[in-house]
Amino acid sequence: MTTHQKTLPTAAYHALDANTYQSSDLTRGPWHPEHQHAGPPIALACRALEAAAREHGLTHLSRLTANLLRPVPISPLRIQVSTDYVGRNAGHFSAQLFAKEKEVARFTALAQRESNLALPEGLPGHPLAKVQLSAEDSAPSIFPFAGRHVGYSDLVETRSASGRIFDGPCAIWFRLQHPLLEGEAPSPYQRVAVAADSGNGVSAILDIKQFSFVNSDLTINLLRRPVGEWICLDARTYLGDNGCGLAESALYDCAGLVGRATQSLAVRALHLQ
Fold first, then answer.
1. What is the mean pLDDT of residues 91-113?
2. pTM (2 d.p.)
3. Which of 167, 199, 141, 145 is nearest to 30 (CA)?
């Protein structure tokens, strides 16, 4: 057992007040030791947006878009949520994330009112597709940056249903190993948000030692409420010759397809000394 495994934080965040949260080392990403992986702060904003939507009886978060304005430091974070418009069946919400008095991310969300609906049999694409290998039958898969520092690779457990992390197209199961917020079980939507921002990483086709391929946004679309602890990203990366790219992930839970996620990538060659 390594030293950092003995002293892992108990959660990604703990609340300082109703809108402010202290970040732990479990949020650390692979690009800079002082910056968070975007998954945890997106999930933290997701939590705040869910709460705002529930006040209006809107219980399904059908879309979440994160615009990542700056790197998110491992520091206290403050979230400010606005209700933009609420109608009979859907509501639009927005949020801002602040760190060290700077706005580091903006979010928009669409929440919908759920109702029971009996679907006709024989619909194209139904029943919803499933991942070939369940999480229980998939082999453990480790991020290549795991072990350098306490960070995101300690926050989540990953298993491979197909392919390998950081080696092209793959399907990777994710499960939180620690709570997002101290003393609180994460919602299914928060579990998706923590995982979905990893699509560009797990499906990387460039060497992380020679290139960066950081995303400046994330959009998640969900057709239904996710179920269970495990979320699978069936991810692909596509690159242009202009320093830009796209990562796309089909999202699954134990019941089958649940949605899709996309990320816009800035691809740069690293100047190694």
1. 97
2. 0.94
3. 145
Domains of the chain (ranges, CATH numbers): 8-114+132-269 (2.40.160.210)
Average pLDDT over residues 91-116: 97
**Which of 242, 156, 139 shows the shortest CA–CA distance to 196?**
156
In angstroms, the CA 96 to CA 72 distance is 12
b vs e for 150-161, b when ≥16 Cβ sit within 10 Å of the residue's Cβ? bbbbbbbbbbbb
What DSSP line would sit under the chain, residue for residue?
A: --HHHHT--SSSEEESSSSEEEE-GGGB-SS-TTBB-SHHHHHHHHHHHHHHHHTTT--EEEEEEEEE-S--BSS-EEEEEEEEEE-SSEEEEEEEEEETTEEEEEEEEEEE-----PPPTT-TT-SPP--SS-TTTSEE---TTTTSSSSHHHHEEEEEEES-TTSSSEEEEEEESS-SBTTBPPPHHHHHHHHHTTHHHHT--S-TTTEEEEESEEEEEESS---SS-EEEEEEEEE-TTSEEEEEEEEEETTEEEEEEEEEEEEEE----
pLDDT, mean of residues 140-164? 91
pLDDT of 22 > 90? The answer is yes
User: 146 CB contacts (<8 Å, ≥6 apart)?
Assistant: 153, 154
For 236-248, give one letter per residue: b (16+ CB within 10 A) or e: bbebeeeeebbbb
Structure tokens at 55: 């006040």
Q: For 165-191, write each residue's pLDDT tens digit.
A: 999 999 999 999 999 999 999 999 999
